[in-house]
Amino acid sequence: MAEAYIVGAVRTPVGTKKGALAGVHPADLGAHVLTELMGRTGVDPAAVEDVVMGCVSQVGPQALDIARTAWLSAGLPETTAGVTVDRQCGSSQQAVHFAAQGVMSGTQELVVASGVENMGMVPMGANAKYAIDAGLSLFGEGWDRRYGDQEISQFRGAQLMAEKWGHTREDLERYSLESHRRAAAAREAGYFEKQIAPLAGVTQDEGVRPDTTLEKMAGLDPLREGWALTAAVASQVSVGAGALLIASEHAVERHGLTPMARIVQLSLVGDDPVYMLTAPIPATRKALEKAGLGIGDIDVTEINEAFAPVPLAWMHELGADPAKTNPNGGAIALGHPLGATGAVLMTKLVHELERTHGRYGLQTMCEGGGQANVTIVERV
């Protein structure tokens, strides 16, 4: 099978839902990272065969195939196609998988994997609003027969995880505080500067709270009476975009590109849709086994911090080193712009491997419906 390489990776700063990026049209968010990616890699945009873009709430300004709209909004060649992917929170990680699979199959040479989401302009769940307003089920009769009429939500799933793995509110808050501490330290040290393409006057991620404390977190109301979850232990509603260029070995030679990382393993697993957020655990086990690696071989992990119980349970079950897991903070501090997060995390991952001279990196995230992608890369 042919090899696939990441030869460029860039992202916007991750903005807050009421921050300076909230008024930027999603097509322009996407166009910004696509333009920057082409400029940084020096590739003739006409050589790009497809743009695969993750986006979850495909409605309003994020409708009508935002991948194609963003590429054209960037003034890039009309000859390049675009397709938009929805695998919930893993949408742009799936975009990386589809792009890499196109290259590894030998049918494509250069493919962009990207993601975009403006949750300030298009609220989470906006694409489900029609069904809700019309009094229609989001799931259908077959689902109801299988799972009953119990609540299916990421919030309940996170609480169920906290209960199953015995995580108290204090455990979750300590994890969240560490996420902010790491993100603030990384930002202060300039670790993100090389990967970020400033936009609308924003040069840094907006969600980091270097002055937060356990005392402040303890003063928040739980999301539901009796729950361990509060807003402090959940990912932030965010705005952002990211893009990576995936190239074949032939394209690397032909265009004089310098690979950042080689794609080692692409895995996908489904798990309990009621718990919803547990799939990174079996998905990681599957990916490591197929790659012939152990968790100790992984130098940097990016696991999406949808809620604090997710990485805590994952580390417990995999025996992962906390120091190598989200070393520069995660979505609790840096934000989670849904369909963009996969591309943002992969951009963070390959740049951190480069900075630390690590060898293997692993990315995973929980996704709606009880799914998870895992991507393993090797620094070149």
TrEMBL record:
Active site positions: C89 (acyl-thioester intermediate), H336 (proton acceptor), C366 (proton acceptor)
Enzyme Commission number(s): 2.3.1.174
SUPFAM superfamilies: Thiolase-like
One annotated GO molecular function: 3-oxoadipyl-CoA thiolase activity
Keywords (A to Z) from UniProt: Acyltransferase, Transferase
Entries under InterPro entries matching the protein: Thiolase (IPR002155), Thiolase-like (IPR016039), Thiolase_C (IPR020617), Thiolase_CS (IPR020613), Thiolase_N (IPR020616)
Taxonomic superkingdom: Bacteria
Coiled coil: none
Span of domain Thiolase C-terminal: 257-379
UniProt key word Acyltransferase: yes
Domain Thiolase N-terminal: 5-249
Sequence intervals crossing the membrane: none
Keyword RNA-binding: no
Entry's family note: Belongs to the thiolase-like superfamily. Thiolase family.
Name of the protein described by the UniProt record: 3-oxoadipyl-CoA/3-oxo-5,6-dehydrosuberyl-CoA thiolase
